[in-house]
Amino acid sequence: MKKLLFITLLAGLWLPSMAAAEIIGSVDTTFKMLGANDQIVIEAFDDPKVDGVSCHLSRAKKGGISGSIGLAEDRSDASIACRQVGPIHFKEPFKDGEMVFTKKTSLLFKTMQVVRFFDRKRNTLIYLVYSDRIIDGSPKNAISTVPVMPWQAK
């Protein structure tokens, strides 16, 4: 078990650079007497390998004392909307299922991830958000698509 924990922590240091999120806003969903309230947080990020595509993500964030000090596990609920915000340009080749964005949603073992696929037949980028844990993930997920005109995919 100690080896698994060490490998997990070490792997986190070697993750490739991904998009950084900017917090747009939040709303409280549950009042907590002590600590922060439970919230829905809205964040935005730009695809690091595709110019002209931005995504907005809403996710649940646990409050209370444990949430305030980073010990609570956030729920797996998330929603994503990605849109073309400028000319689309592929900066470099990418693989289907490549991670675009990740956010830790518990102290150690749970993360929310956004991965990208390209449906070549339909010229469409697909962004999938989901949560996973080392032992057991969640089937909750959401997708957003961005059509790419053939003359844009350079």
UniProtKB/TrEMBL annotation:
GO terms for cellular component: cytosol. This is CreA family protein. Residues 1-19 form the signal peptide. Keywords: Signal. It comes from Magnetococcus marinus (strain ATCC BAA-1437 / JCM 17883 / MC-1). Pfam families: CreA (PF05981). InterPro entries: Uncharacterised_CreA. It comes from the Bacteria.
